[in-house]
Amino acid sequence: MKRERMLLWVVVALGLAYAYVMAPSPARAQGSGPITLNFVSFAPAANVVEFQHIKKELFDRVNQLAKGKLVINVKGGPEVIPPFNLGAAVKNGTIDMACIPNAFFEDLVPGVGVTHLSSFTAVEERKNGVFEALGEIYKKAGMFYLGRGQATEHGYFMMFLNKPVEKQSDFKGLRLGGSTSFHGQFKELGGVASTLQTTEYNTAMERGQVDGLTSSVYIATAYGLQSVTKYVILPGFWRSSVALPVNLAKWNKIPSDLRKLMISEMAAYEAKFAPYELEQRNLFIKRFTDAGVKLINLSPDAARWFVTASTEGAWKYAQERQPGDIIPKMRQLLTKK
Fold first, then answer.
1. Is the pLDDT of residue 124 over 50?
2. Is CATH 3.40.50.970 the right assignment for the domain spanning 34-151+241-278?
3. pTM of the shown model
4. How far apart are the first and last CA of the chain?
5. How far apart are CA 142 and CA 323, in angstroms?
């Protein structure tokens, strides 16, 4: 009897030991599946340059190099989360990361609403301390700044009008719409500013609610402005304002090797995007001219005034919206000496 009991205890002890050895530790269990980062863009999925390109050239590449340890899950565009809600969605963890124009969430990250006015390329910003300085600002808002979702050269934004302009006085009184990033420009040019969601652009132009608006040629194309616009004004101005923030709590849970991979691939993507975008910009402008839209190339004097007024107006408006020293500090940070 005693021998049977002893044998029973040995079997139980061996069973418990086996279970202990074979059971995954908490850390192992947590890492048994891939880390998933859910991504949403402000741009529609049909937008080749602003949606499809980053998915193919950055996210798909990261997924491949991560070898199943990390997956960036592209959920979609504005149909998933309205663009003006993306910043809050990243901050509170509703989604993990997003491409967002700076004006759409500047209230959450004070100062970033002027990054499109930077004198530096994205490559230069990673070398001269601008990238790190922006990163600190994002961290205070509960986000990690991965980089510029669209690292463009100057001239990225353009004005689309239904009234012709040639000189400074022609801009006075124009009803101009767009995000708050452009309100300072509109006012400095002598126009009347109104806020429009990108999804409202086509209807506002078609119904004559505005005389024109400022946008990238890609967003303009995605929302069919070539069918409701008469003129495109050149030169263009500023860089893209799109940033790629990640929820900070989620970012901190990613193993360091995968964080390094994402940062490295983001920097490489920024360097490749600028020449690609310039080529695409010209092709998309041709879509407008092919549709019968007229290009208005301002004279050198008018062009100089137009770009300067647009930029100064943007800085002034930013200061009005965010009194204090944050905007002067940002101007010093983003301006070549």
1. yes
2. no
3. 0.82
4. 92
5. 22
